[in-house]
Amino acid sequence: MAQQHTYAVIMAGGIGSRFWPMSRNMFPKQFHDMLGRGQTLIQTTYERFRRFVPAENIYIVTNALYKPLIQDQLPEVPDRQVLYEPFGRNTAPCILYAASRIHKNDPHARIIVSPSDHLILPEEDFQRDVQVALDALEGQSRIMTIGINPSRPDTGYGYIQYLEEAGATYFKVKTFTEKPSLEIAKSFLRSGDFVWNSGIFIFSSDTILRAFEALLPDMYELFEEAKPAYETPDEPNAIEAVYSRCKNISIDYGIMEKANNVFVIRSHFRWSDLGTWKSLYEEMSKDTLGNALSGNILAYNSSNNIVKVTPQAGDKLVVLKGIENLIVVDTGDVLLVCPKDQEQTIRNIVADVRKDRGDQFV
Amino acid sequence: MAQQHTYAVIMAGGIGSRFWPMSRNMFPKQFHDMLGRGQTLIQTTYERFRRFVPAENIYIVTNALYKPLIQDQLPEVPDRQVLYEPFGRNTAPCILYAASRIHKNDPHARIIVSPSDHLILPEEDFQRDVQVALDALEGQSRIMTIGINPSRPDTGYGYIQYLEEAGATYFKVKTFTEKPSLEIAKSFLRSGDFVWNSGIFIFSSDTILRAFEALLPDMYELFEEAKPAYETPDEPNAIEAVYSRCKNISIDYGIMEKANNVFVIRSHFRWSDLGTWKSLYEEMSKDTLGNALSGNILAYNSSNNIVKVTPQAGDKLVVLKGIENLIVVDTGDVLLVCPKDQEQTIRNIVADVRKDRGDQFV
User: Which residues, 6 or more positions from A312, have their beta carbon under 8 angstroms from its beta carbon?
Assistant: First the structure.
């Protein structure tokens, strides 16, 4: 099928509170150069799709708060391709909004939905896997997903179980399981027919709309009612009305777990959700003592630290002396110092800081 | 003798590199509110003398670089009472300059010389001890010093040994010893006739000038030559010429160790030279977990830390989570993170930073 019908939808509405104070309500993770590579995560994601999707077919769905960040970081994306949510309602409404909006103009659309803040390398392998998924849509009503070979029994991910089939390039999905216990995650790894859910989905707009109509009919109806307002000055009001009545539900729980036409491709690319400081640390370049340093930093007799000084801190110099295994984040207005092995408490810190100091710093 | 002949000379030329990055070449320790009490150390020292010394008799000797800081922090001190050194040459030239300048206008002057950056409390006890020293000058050519009862065998201080004399309020000094080894410091404490040198001296201008004439005659001559320039537009040039030819030597080594008319009063006040983060930590108020926090700081599950956020860092929020025994200093342009037990390395860090990043941050 012609490339003109291939679309990408980049989901960029998250707030990434595990990376506070770098990731903030008003400046979340996907808009930061988390890996210190001279590009923000959403810019990298955009370029990933720009390799094989026409520019006029790449859409962003994000919170209305982030309009200035989108305009600053992706000035080449026209406003009509940025869909602003009045508030987050998880991935199901986000995907339905984008699919319904795209489908209105192009009923032959094939859509690749992707998070904006993951690491995917090399780009060629990603493109190849996506092409397999797109090809699998040909003449079939299928929802394709991309699964990642699990390297550890991570309890923070969703798992996809598939029906093994010798020689196949993709597999029928049996079950979706969100964030299992460690015991169950271990059994998944042992059984060998589970992959991690990458959050990347490929489907035709027609197929996904039919799935919503069948499985989340109330939500489907809300967006059908809003349809006439798309690309008119009324769109923000119509969408605000939809979202205020829309339930908060993920695409995994609302559609994928229940649909019987879901397939999975085992990815050939390297992937990280960059969901924790630890996973970020693994992907950052490090000095000989294992320090991952991003900013104007001097580390003396210090090892295995992760230090982030954001551009908002200016030309600030950070000096560590005799420090081990710490997370140090300086954003100019906030400094966080926390041991790496306590990173799971950072979300709680954000709540404490809001309680103790109000919204200014969160 | 009338109060009109009583003078104070506050020595404020140090750079306090042990408190880097708070204390900086261009903004040293004495100009900071090190204890978080709403006053800088030099302001507290000035007020200490202002209680019993006429305002027109309180002099400051400092580096010419700190003129803006003096004018900002002590606007009530007229420019004629601030003596600017072109560069530091230790305490002997500093004291000689002040004594010679004061003596020119008032040959009956009695001078109290004091560092600008020490903790002294309560003020009443200090004033009483100084009064005993001033009284001891009456009709006698004496150099009075104030000794501190040593509470530990500190190797960073100077020690004064005195001749014990039952019922005396002050004692003849036998020896001065700068920074002894730990073994020797321990023996000093055991012997019981040693006190710490507080760096506070009380003498008549005549007595100290005669001591310089006898013990540091070259230096004495240099200042005698500069004398006609005092309080004229030529003073800075004349003093620069003197300092460029003047040797770098402390008053202790150049005068006190050699003069035979030195006496010591055992202080009744509490004293700290605030010379290390540890000594500063002891004097700061602490939360229930032993954190000494100065600035907009939240400490969760953290104990025994010392955190300083200077006004230059603005309204910055510092959050510690699960942190123990650290020094964290944020000055807006520099952040230092270092374990408390490694504070003695901070001076080396300053040298390293100068080497690695130049003078901007030191």
Answer: A331, A332, A333
How does pLDDT run along chain B (362 residues), one tens digit per residue? 568 999 999 999 988 888 999 999 999 999 999 998 899 999 999 999 999 999 999 999 999 999 999 999 999 999 999 999 999 999 999 999 999 999 999 999 999 999 999 999 999 999 999 999 999 999 999 999 999 999 999 998 999 999 999 889 999 999 999 899 999 999 999 999 999 999 999 999 999 999 999 999 999 999 999 999 999 999 999 999 999 999 999 999 999 999 999 999 999 999 999 999 999 999 999 999 999 999 999 999 999 999 999 999 998 999 999 999 999 999 999 999 999 999 989 989 999 999 999 888 99
Contact A322 B314 (CB under 8 A): no
Rounded CA separation A7/A202 (Å): 10
CB atoms B339 and A322 under 8 Å: yes
Interchain pair A322, B338: CB under 8 A: yes
Please give the ipTM for the structure prediction.
0.86
Cα→Cα distances A21→A27, A100, B314, Å: 10, 35, 17
Residue of A nearest to B325 (CA): A323
Closest CA to A219 of A256, A247, A244: A247
Of B317, B336, B342, the CB nearest to A361: B317
